[in-house]
Amino acid sequence: MQLICRQLQLVQQTLRSYEQQIASAYAAHPDHEIFASLPGAGPVLGRGCWPAWVPSANASAAAADVQQYTGIAAGDQTQRGQLLHTPAYLCPKFHKQSFHEYAKESILWSRWAAAYYLQQRTKGSPHHTAVRALAYKWQRVIFRCWQNHTPYQEAIYEAALKKSGSPLVALFDKVELGKSPFKNP
Q1: Read out DSSP for 87-126?
Q2: Mean pLDDT to the nearest integer, 146-167
C-alpha cells in the first residue's frame, strides 16, 4: 500500500509540473491575450480552448476549418473526387469538450451569449444543442479576433449586433449576467 501511495505522489508531482509548463507556454503565446479576454474563460477555460486553435488555425484557414477540427460542426471533405461527410464525433474530444464547456460558462458572463442561449432554448432546442450552437458562434467570434490579432471586446460585438439588426438585441433586457436566462426567464 505504501508503494502505491508513493507512486501516486509521483504522478501528482508530475501532473503539477505539466500544469506549470502548460501555464507558462499559454502565458508566453502571442494569442494569449485573445483567449484571456474571453468573458468567463479565466485561466482554465481559456487555456483549454487555446490548444485547439494552434493546430487547426493557420493563415489560410477559415472559421469553418476550426469548427470542423474541434467537432463543433460536422464537415464535408473531398477525397479522390468523392464527397465524404465527416461526422462531428470524429474529432479530438478534449477540444470539443473545451469549447462546449466555455460556451456554457459564457452564458453567465456575456450578455449576447446569454441572449443567444435563451433564443435557442425558446425555439425548443435541448440544453446541449443550444450550448453547441453557442460554441459554434463563439468560434466564429474568436476566429475574427485571431485574424485581426485583437482581444475580444463585448461592447464592440454588441454594437455590431445592434448595427446588423440582430434579433438578439431584443433579448438583452431579458438576461441578467450571472444567471441562466432559461432557468430565470
Answers
A1: -TTSS-HHHHHHHHHHHHHHTTT-HHHHHHHHHHHHTT--
A2: 92
